[in-house]
């Protein structure tokens, strides 16, 4: 029983996962998942407002306890293992998922006064209620602080920290005022585990700060005076309820508290890393390197790239952020992605394939179709567009239906639409000097759907590779657990060293089929035409109003929004 | 047993119907339907080419025999009736549904040599294989004979006579050359029933001639020299294989032949009216009058209007024809319509509601939604656009999908899209001085779907009325049976007299709901925006290429078309 192990804790959209890893070789000796108990698959919805998506912070702690203990039990069963061999803990979570906390760092949702109040819950990344505020922030920053936007793609998103805080201020001032601090899920969890009850002293992570809150080493968070122009109370949040500095996950947040050590059956004092965003640690767990785009393919996609911080890098419009050190220290971390991928396929199967509600039969039918054969083309904006348009007020589109169009044809068109969206992102990276030689895929869809992988290869023209680990986010978290443990405890000095030992790729590679190229190039040109017509206001004869007007009408009829 | 009765024979897309009517009051004493036995619901399809839709002429005769005999049997059972009381027969059929026949007027499909050859069958109205030829004819007519197009909306359709003959000439020259005549289904059937074996002497109907073949009293069919510019052999068709004059259905085609009298259990010599298009006789059976648009709502829609031929009437662009006397003698008959209505609803239910395949549950859900509530908008072009764009190379479009969009929401959006298409037609009529005060609906959908009727009322802003008869086409045919029988035999001198006695409306009226108006006006403006962007090449920043390029790619991949 001399081995050291590290624990990665991954907080996804619907569940938490614990992964126990041997840092020597990345061997995953045990894992367990626990679903969040509340709402619909862990998400608190509003019956009338499809933009709303909240989460109960208590769910995170319950699920963490269950999955960690289950993983430990499994590890014990699997062989020679004792929980005290765990020498470091890394944590990732979704973002931007901010929540209001009290002066002791407890979520306001735990207060009797706010019981059941959706605005006192965590505002899940996919909550788009703050779309109007995102526009306001974007416009104000364009006028007064364009540098704030330069590193986050040119547009501030409704998914992000300040939009949500500003929206809360307006729709739930009593919650807003009661908050002693606004914190990210990825900061709340390490702070809670380390028993830190002073939010002002929490080590906030640079990943969420830089990608979601316009934090930059040159200026910290945006200026309080600037935020005060949006609302004086937002300036107060900046002054008193946030932070001045942010840190990479290679730093310790602290040691595991006695309370949580007991609950989780671990050793008190075990080093806990500063948190990070799930997709970013997924990129680390997939072995991200220059030239390899790591794609986390789940309900949505996150596309991660790195670029040496010693080399110049342009501001890339439409990206979700370029942050020094947000993925691997010494590199700019870049995040792009699509607001819905698996969510679209699931939506279709759940709503339009009532008899079966299964992907496999549809995928088998769809695999028989040739590119272009259906005459269909889809835009992949059912949940808005995160990159490169950064516009949540876009929606899905399907064109080309005849009276013979089949379910399998639509299903394939949705996959193709998603792949065209992926290609737009790759082309944007390359246009700005970041070559994409291959794509390393992680996540359930990459594992389970060879059809999706082949279509992505054919449409993007890039080989599709698969991360060796099926749970790269948790593995990435474990890697940072190894780094905060340090070499003396069986861990590593640097992330790069840890990656070299602990990550790998599967042998299978989906290569682009050259026969599909001509047709898919032609279809992509049509996709771009629709993309620009519906997505950009400056194309001539633009239809950019159409989706927005439809959503505005819908919201008016439903009586939602401001 | 002193009463006279008349028989209406209605040949629809999937079945034939016989209706026995008392001309004194329009009472329908018996009816029967017989499905066409071949293909898919009577339609011969091509596994690869969704544009192709043919029909076996033998099916018509088989179905006619079955339904006529069944109606007679039912009439006998219902009361005092003997078949010899039937004093006149009227006939309607789909159009343009041309077929090649031999020198005796027999379909070439009956010849051993062409057994199973789809090109020797009847080319069903919804066959769109001739879309390239339609463009050629349109372009040639625009240059040399714009008057040919002026009365048929400005564009010659792929659904129509000359497009199909020209396409046949190219893809099946052996069939083309073997034809002694090209005839419409609505001419073939009366000729067959009257035992006329000389196609050159058949009384061709002005309805199909004027609406589908550019026939006009001023010039007859298009000039042979003009047609020869498209192909010399098409000029030959004009010279030797068609006709010089066309007639209204108030004229007799002849008397029932002994052969068919025996087969149908009727009296030889019974007057048979010249044929007409089903929708046009449907308008007559619905009691069409000035200001009332008669809408035949079935798989597609036909929208019929009349206007006194003593008053000036502009050429209306985008209409399917303005023909003097094609509906009621003394009036210009005008035809408009949508290429797919019920077909779209059925397509959705059959393909995307696998569990139930029924309209009622979806309609019940959809009825609970408010206008605008779904955020969806659909173009109704799954089978192309017949009016006012006259373009078969258009396709369906759905925009506004989110991850929450339900089947019922899509179903309602498809109905709304269809109603917006109906409103475009109404606005076109009014723009050119033909007021539309109300809509008289006929057909299965009008009978069965109050949801469709209410949405049509709300979106068009017109009261929706229902024809009293559930089978107005057959009733219209029976009315012409009464006219060719004449007053001495218990019939009538004029169509108007017959209509006054034999037609009526139901009491129920769907009035437009004023609360829906604002939202639907806003949605209609967005529909128009998409309509013009995808449908018209001259809008700036047009997307008019998109649907066509998708269809061209599809056809290339499938290896269909020229």
Number of helical segments of chain A? 20
Q: In terms of structural class, how would the helical and strand content of chain A be classed?
A: alpha+beta
What Rg of chain A do the Cα atoms give?
Answer: 23 Å
What distance separates the N and C termini of chain A? 60 Å
**Considering DSSP H and I runs of 4 or more, what fraction of the residues of chain A is helical?**
40-55%
What is the mean pLDDT of chain A?
A: 95
Biggest sheet architecture of chain A: 7 strands, mixed
Instruction: Give the strand line-up of the largest sheet of chain A.
Output: 14-15-13-12-18-19-20
* Shape call of chain A: globular
Uncertain segments of chain A: none
Seen as an oligomer or otherwise, the chain set is: homodimer
According to DSSP, the number of beta strands of chain A is 20
Largest interface: A-B, 59 and 59 residues
Q: What portion of the residues of chain A fall into strands of 2 or more residues?
A: 15-25%
């Amino acid at each position: 029983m001399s081995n050291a192990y590290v624990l990665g804790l991954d907080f996804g959209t619907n569940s938490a996962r614990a992964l126990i890893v041997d840092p020597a070789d990345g061997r995953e000796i045990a894992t367990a998942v626990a679903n969040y108990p509340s709402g619909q698959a862990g998400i608190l919805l509003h019956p009338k407002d499809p933009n709303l998506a909240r989460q109960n912070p208590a769910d995170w702690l319950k699920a963490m306890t269950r999955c960690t203990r289950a993983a430990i039990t499994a590890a014990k069963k699997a062989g020679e293992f004792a929980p005290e061999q765990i020498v470091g803990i890394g944590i990732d979570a979704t973002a931007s998922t901010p929540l209001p906390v009290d002066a002791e760092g407890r979520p306001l949702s735990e207060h009797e006064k706010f019981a059941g109040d959706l605005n006192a819950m965590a505002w899940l990344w996919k909550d788009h209620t703050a779309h109007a505020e995102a526009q306001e922030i974007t416009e104000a920053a364009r006028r007064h602080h364009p540098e704030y936007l330069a590193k986050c793609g040119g547009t501030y998103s409704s998914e992000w920290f300040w939009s949500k805080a500003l929206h809360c201020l307006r729709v739930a001032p009593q919650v807003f005022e009661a908050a002693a601090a606004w914190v990210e899920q990825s900061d709340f969890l390490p702070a809670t585990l380390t028993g830190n009850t002073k939010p002002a002293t929490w080590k906030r992570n640079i990943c969420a700060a830089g990608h979601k809150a316009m934090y930059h080493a040159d200026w910290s968070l945006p200026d309080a005076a600037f935020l005060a122009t949006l609302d004086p109370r937002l300036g107060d949040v900046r002054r008193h309820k946030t932070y001045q500095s942010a840190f990479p996950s290679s730093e310790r947040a602290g040691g595991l508290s006695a309370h949580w050590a007991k609950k989780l059956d671990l050793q008190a004092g075990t080093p806990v890393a500063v948190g990070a965003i799930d997709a970013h640690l997924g990129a680390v767990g997939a072995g991200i390197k220059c030239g390899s785009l790591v794609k986390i393919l789940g309900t949505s996609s996150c596309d991660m790239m790195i670029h040496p911080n010693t080399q110049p890098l342009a501001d890339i419009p439409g990206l979700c952020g370029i942050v020094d050190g947000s993925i691997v220290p010494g590199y700019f971390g870049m995040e792009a992605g699509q607001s819905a991928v698996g969510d679209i396929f699931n939506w279709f199967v759940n709503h339009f394939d009532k008899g079966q509600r299964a992907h496999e039969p549809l995928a088998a039918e769809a695999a028989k179709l040739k590119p272009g054969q259906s005459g269909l083309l889809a835009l992949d904006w059912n949940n808005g567009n995160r990159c490169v348009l950064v516009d949540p007020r876009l929606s899905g589109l399907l064109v080309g239906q005849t009276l013979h169009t089949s379910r399998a044809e639509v299903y394939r068109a949705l996959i193709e639409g998603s792949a065209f969206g992926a290609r737009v992102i790759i082309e944007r990276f390359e246009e700005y000097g970041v070559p994409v030689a291959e794509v390393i895929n992680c996540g359930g869809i990459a594992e389970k759907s060879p059809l999706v992988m082949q279509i992505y290869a054919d449409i993007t023209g890039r080989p599709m590779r698969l991360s060796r680990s099926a749970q790269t986010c948790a593995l990435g978290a474990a890697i940072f657990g190894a780094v905060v443990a340090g070499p003396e405890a069986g861990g590593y000095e640097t992330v790069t060293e840890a990656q070299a030992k602990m990550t790998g790729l599967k042998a299978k590679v989906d290569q682009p089929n050259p026969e599909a190229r001509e047709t898919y190039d032609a279809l992509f040109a049509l996709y771009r035409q629709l993309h620009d017509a519906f997505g950009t206001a400056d194309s001539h004869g633009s239809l950019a109003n159409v989706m927005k007007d439809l959503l505005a009408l819908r919201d008016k009829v439903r009586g939602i929004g401001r």
